[in-house]
Amino acid sequence: MSPSLSKKHQKLVDGIQAGKKRSIARAITIVENDEETAAALIEALYGFSGKAFVLGITGPPGAGKSTLVASTVREFRAQGKTVAVIAVDPTSPYSGGALLGDRVRMDRVAADDGVFIRSMATRGNLGGLSRKTVDAAIVLDSAGYDIVIIETVGVGQSEVEIASTADTTVVVLSPEAGDGIQAMKAGLMEVADVFCVNKSDRDGADRLVREIQNAVMLPSNQKEESSWYPTVIKTQARAGDGVQELIAAVKSHEAFQREAGRFESERVRNTRLRIGRIARDTLTDRLSTGHQQLLDQLAEEVVARKKTPYSAATELIEQYLRNAHKAD
Amino acid sequence: MSPSLSKKHQKLVDGIQAGKKRSIARAITIVENDEETAAALIEALYGFSGKAFVLGITGPPGAGKSTLVASTVREFRAQGKTVAVIAVDPTSPYSGGALLGDRVRMDRVAADDGVFIRSMATRGNLGGLSRKTVDAAIVLDSAGYDIVIIETVGVGQSEVEIASTADTTVVVLSPEAGDGIQAMKAGLMEVADVFCVNKSDRDGADRLVREIQNAVMLPSNQKEESSWYPTVIKTQARAGDGVQELIAAVKSHEAFQREAGRFESERVRNTRLRIGRIARDTLTDRLSTGHQQLLDQLAEEVVARKKTPYSAATELIEQYLRNAHKAD
Fold first, then answer.
1. Terminal C-alpha separation, chain B
2. What is the pLDDT of residues A157-200, one digit of tens each?
3. B265 touches chain A (CB under 8 A)
4. Beta strands in chain A (DSSP E)
5. pLDDT of amino acid B98
6. Which of A271, A291, A300 to mutate to test the interface with B (most CBs of B within 10 A)?
7. Do the strands A53-59 and B115-119 form a parallel or antiparallel pair, or are they unpaired?
8. Does residue A309 sit at the B interface (CB-CB below 8 Å)?
9. Which helix (H) or strand (E) holds A14?
10. B280–A279: do the CB atoms touch at under 8 Å?
11. Which of A19, A192, B9, B36 is the most exposed place for a label (fewest CB within 10 A)?
């Protein structure tokens, strides 16, 4: 299936395992732009991954995620952990000012050798975001970082899904009107292991905390007996207040999951979904690449109402299976 | 492939073609919740669809989309057109207050017999959004509405994709800081046929218009010679200002596309993508449903680093193809 690595890329793999930032950066660029080489790269790196703790941080735009991530990174560093950050946020910067502030803050953090920060290019590229993010996480994991943070904007469905592939998922909300409702609508309540009410000095912070605690108790959000109930932590990321508590909550969740034997089984569950996604994407590529003409013809027949999209899809699949069979 | 319709559902089809709102509503609920019946329903309805003009309206949260949609609907009605609206917006309501305002506004509009408004339930449901939305549009199309409006929040990749399956796509921005940058990052520039700068009485409206006009001219956004260049319209949706101009711009785009023979070919292109998506989803279902045990085993081997996600996916596909072959 996947091509074997060229000498050049083998050197890249060595550089990554040696933790060379330039090699890591180049590998992530490959993951972003060259699917085939990326697959080969992951083949080569995968065996060295799996040691990092993956932390997902998501939430609506403007909740202060980037600032929170920056202070979280500083706190992990103070605890002697190395940290890598992948920021997947097509809507960020939400405001030019905030960006500047965060960037300065981030740059100061990124100067540190035990820290790697990379934002994924998503502009105009609406596909494969999930694959690219998870592969980037594998690169950073195999480079030996203790913690890999995946930051996504919790608005689009894909973005929420990405964050929820982490070992622990933190949902960041701010007391702005509607954030609570919005979180529920966006399916954020379902993926949260820890809630972070940021900008907790603002009006409505306590109301939001209550809102969340009530929502967690809603029948639709009930879990089995023995399972973890999301904790709610108040932070003021800009001042760093509450960040230690946030990290403590994340660690409690990790400990609980390990205790309950759920840490590993969650990774199996996520990996299961991932294998399914890769298989799906591979089949999709084969379906379209192998059958351009048939697809053109089917599309025209569907637009002319001679066929329906569903019957056309069935025809496409049957043709593909016939060819695959011949290919054996 | 798809099951044939029960008597009950045949009556539903009749009700939809008779334009009965209750039948339409029930059909959309089926589209949302029961994939199999939905497929059969679309099989039955598809031949009667294709007459409606489909208008996509997208943009970041808080740009005033819902208010704009409401005034657009009123304007279309004033021109004697019947209009159906599908609102896909997991983040809406962005603020409780705005919602209330919009809902009142919407209710007044929805009382009109020539108008149907439905928001798609997305809470906690992160899959199949695109299929459900397009199928809902087919239901409304086959019910005989002249215009079908699909409103999505232009932040997540899926949401942007959904809106861009329309005949004409309007991207709504407001002069808030960063909206322009955000739009570019979210890939909104690429999908826009018409830009709507809403809340145009606010500071920065003219700057945003210039920002957009410059962005449209960026090399990366250049199109072939003969193709349409997005127009920029200023509106104040709450007061209804500029809405006639917006609709005029939409009509110019439609006319241009028809003139250039692109109206039909765009539908073919979108349908082509759609057939591919349906085929992909069908294969994904078969892959997972038929191979639970294999998937479990592969996932565990991958987590144990005995295999990589990519080699596991290849194995899954090969197994599926062998079974499909046997099944012949």
1. 15
2. 677 778 778 999 999 999 975 666 666 666 777 889 999 999 99
3. no
4. 53-59, 83-88, 115-119, 147-153, 168-173, 194-197, 231-234
5. 36
6. A271
7. unpaired
8. yes
9. helix A7-17
10. no
11. B36
Average pLDDT, chain B: 84
Q: For residue B267, is pLDDT > 90?
A: yes
What's the gap in Å between the CA of A104 and the closest CA on chain B? 18
Check residue B243 and give its pLDDT. 97
**Total-model pTM:** 0.73
Name, of A121-135, A233-247, A266-280, B205-219, the range with top average pLDDT.
A233-247
Whole-angstrom Cα distance, residue B115 to residue A210? Answer: 39
A283-314 core/surface letters (b: 16 or more CB in 10 A; e: else): bbeebbebbeebbeebbbbbbeeebbbbbbbb
Q: What separation in angstroms does the CA of A59 have from each of A18, A160, A238, B156, B159? A: 34, 8, 17, 13, 17
A95/B177 Cβ within 8 A: yes
Which A-chain residues 123-182 have CB contacts (< 8 A) with chain B? 123-127, 129, 153, 155-161, 176-178, 181-182
CA atoms of A77 and A58, how far apart (whole Å): 21
pLDDT digits (tens, 9 = 90+) for A202-258: 999 999 999 888 888 766 655 666 778 899 999 999 999 999 999 999 999 999 999
Instruction: Give how far A247 is from chain B: nearest CA, Å.
Output: 25
Task: Give me the residue spans of the domains in chain B.
Answer: 1-44, 49-261, 272-327
Q: List, in sequence order, every residue forming a beta bridge with B116; answer none if it has no partner.
A: B84
The residue among B65, B110, B64 whose CA lies nearest residue B88 is B65
B100 — contact with chain A (CB < 8 Å)? no
Between residues A156 and B321, which one has the greater pLDDT?
A: B321
**Topology at the third CATH level for domain A49-261:** Rossmann fold (3.40.50)
Query: Is A158 buried (19+), middle (13-18) or exposed (0-12) by CB count in 10 A?
Result: buried
Name every chain A residue with its beta carbon within 8 A of the beta carbon of B176: 95
Please answer yes or no on whether B158 and A159 come within 8 Å at the CB atom.
no
Please give the single-letter amino acid code of residue B20.
Answer: K
Q: Which of A170, A234, A236, A243 is nearest to A208 (CA)?
A: A234
Nearest chain A residue to B181, by CA:
A93
Judging contacts by C-beta atoms under 8 Å, the chain A residues touching residue B46 are 305, 308-309
Cβ-nearest to B324 among A303, A314, A321: A321
> B168-178, pLDDT tens digit by residue?
999 999 997 56
Give chain A positions within 8 Å (CB) of B321: 321, 324-325, 328
Interchain contact, A300 vs B95, CB within 8 Å:
no
Amino acid, single-letter form, for residue B11: K
- The ipTM, to two decimals, is 0.84
Say which residues have a Cβ less than 8 Å from residue B267's Cβ, sequence separation at least 6. A303, B167
Chain A residues lying within 8 Å of B283, measured CB to CB:
280, 283-284, 287, 317
Strand partners of residue A86: A118, A150
* Residue A206, CA atoms < 13 Å, CB-side half-sphere: 0
Q: Are A171 and A88 in contact (CB under 8 A)?
A: no
Query: What is the torsion angle, in degrees rounded to the nearest 10, for the CA atoms of residue A167, residue A172, residue A178 and residue A180?
Result: 50
